Amino acid sequence: MSKAPSAVGTDDPTAKGRGQQQGRGQGQGLRERIEHQWQLFASDKPGERFVNLHKRRQEHRDGKFSWERILFVGAGLFLIVVGLFFMAVPGPGLPVLVAGLGLMGSEALFMARGLDWAEQKLRPPVLKLKARWDALSPRTRLLFWCAAGTAGATAGVLLLMWWK
User: With a cut of 50, which residues of the chain have pLDDT below it?
Assistant: First the structure.
């Protein structure tokens, strides 16, 4: 896989001769900008992704005050709180929590460094777990999800009973 350009203000190689510039949305829709940023993020080396994302966001901002930064930090904090709530009750807690941490990592260098460190430490065991999961039969996977759903529903009911 070829390394995508790391700076936001560079020409987009996928623009197919349209002469568009990456960056402040000149001639691009939101979806294209998000896809391009995801490609840059995914092409970065594991352990450097979040710091590089943070650097690209800072270059994009040019050191100026930005309501966008306040929005990203606020949305990140909100998603972290919602993710923690959904970890206690049945719901998509972990993905929401990770999304909130990612938004915070794009704005705070210490968070970006922490997320890169966590990715380095968690990547090998997660890949090993994924290989084991892929080796399971579809029937075993179904049984696992049924058991996990039952356990989650039971935990939710017990939590509601305790809450009253």
Answer: 1-25
